[in-house]
Amino acid sequence: MNRIYKIALTKIKGLGPKLTRGLLNHFETAENVFKSSDTELQKVFGIGSTIAHEIKNGKYLKAAEEELTFIDKNEIQLLWIKDKNIYPRRLSHCEDAPLLLYYKGNADLNTKKIISIVGSRNATTYGLELCKDFVKNLKDPDTLVISGLAYGIDVQAHRSSLDNKIPTVGVLGHGLDRIYPYAHRETAKQMLMKGGGLLTEFASGTNPERTNFPMRNRIIAGLSDVTIVVEAAIKGGALITAEIANSYNRDVCAFPGSVHQTYSAGCNYLIKTHRAHLIRNANDLYYLMNWEKEEKKSKDTQLPLFTEKLSKDEKKVADYIASRKEDVHVDEIANHCNWPQSKLAIVLLEMELAGHVVSLPGKMYKNSVR
């Protein structure tokens, strides 16, 4: 029954992720939201009489019952944002993350390294070959490749991952009752069979409308440690995904291309405006993300951090870093401390200036050598 309330809450017209979060913070559970009166609902900031009336409309619970039947029949998992053990950890740090995701597959959405690969639907031979070589040279077995199952670079990223036995997940702009484009149905089937998956925030019956794909792009960016733009024109979904990744404080990398080539203009622009790191291959990515050192590092190299002169907030960060046997990503620290990125950035800067922590490529931090 609890699942029905969660599904119904995401279907209500006029409720986006931020307003829904406000409701959940106030009422604690989706079930409590539906069992509250109009008056109680309107005490929550942003909830007026129109939305309160929509919440009390029984049609959403009925629609949720039908959706639940489809989910159970097709072995689809519901990933609810408050279920910390199953909801994608990286995505949960994004303020506009979907409250509910529909997931079919076995890939670990919280694995050690997650790379999203995006690019032009009208990929050139140059772009396709870059994508193939890049994926082929990904070294770490605990790597997951994310893309959007679209024509061009997206589907090449998925197919190259399959060829190299790397799990890959497609993020869709429609429900899991279909595959779009239809031509990629067999690729999607192989992804499911070989340890990957399909993920969407859209319920069954949702068509692949144009407006859905920018929403899909934020999930691709939010799931990943780094977004790779292989080939892109100056306008399009790949650049939108890169901009969103930057807004999430995630790393973005782009392959350079000819100044005369239309489908390299977007990548060149990202590099020129410092919105993306220039990379030529997978080795460049490992260097930029500090993943080379991570592979070689032994658990004994982490030095203790002196904490006697730290403030309460700094000690909280220091104790967490000291408890880890590896370098720590800024998102992991934010999640542990339950702070907004703005506060954490100030605390980390003060600690870095004081010599308590060292900032590494890829937004990683480690204990300083004292």
Per DSSP, the total helix count is: 18
Low-confidence stretches: 298-307
CATH topology annotation of the largest domain: Rossmann fold
Distance between the termini: 55 Å
Structural class of the helix and strand makeup?
A: alpha/beta
How does the overall form come out from the CA principal axes? globular
Our count of domains comes out at 3
Strand order of the largest sheet: 1-2-6-5-4-3-7-8-9
Salient structural properties:
globular, 3 domains, DNA polymerase, domain 1, alpha/beta, 370 residues, nine-stranded mixed sheet, 45% helix, Arc Repressor Mutant, subunit A, 18 helices, three-stranded antiparallel sheet, 12 strands, 13% strand, Rossmann fold
What does this protein structure show overall?
The protein has 370 residues and is an alpha/beta fold. It folds into 3 domains: 1-72, 5' to 3' exonuclease, C-terminal subdomain (DNA polymerase, domain 1); 104-289, 3-Layer(aba) Sandwich (Rossmann fold), CATH 3.40.50.450; 298-367, Winged helix-like DNA-binding domain superfamily/Winged helix DNA-binding domain (Arc Repressor Mutant, subunit A), CATH 1.10.10. It has helices spanning 2-11, 17-27, 30-34, 38-41, 49-55, 59-73, 89-92, 125-136, 153-163, 185-193, 212-223, 237-247, 265-272, 282-288, 291-296, 312-323, 330-337, 341-353; strands at residues 77-80, 100-105, 113-118, 143-147, 168-171, 197-200, 226-229, 251-254, 277-278, 328-329, 357-360, 364-367. It has a 9-stranded mixed sheet, sandwiched between helices. Strands 10-12-11 form a 3-stranded antiparallel sheet. α1 (2-11) crosses α6 and α8 (125-136) runs parallel beside α9 (153-163). The longest helix has 15 residues, at 59-73. It starts with a helix and ends with a strand.
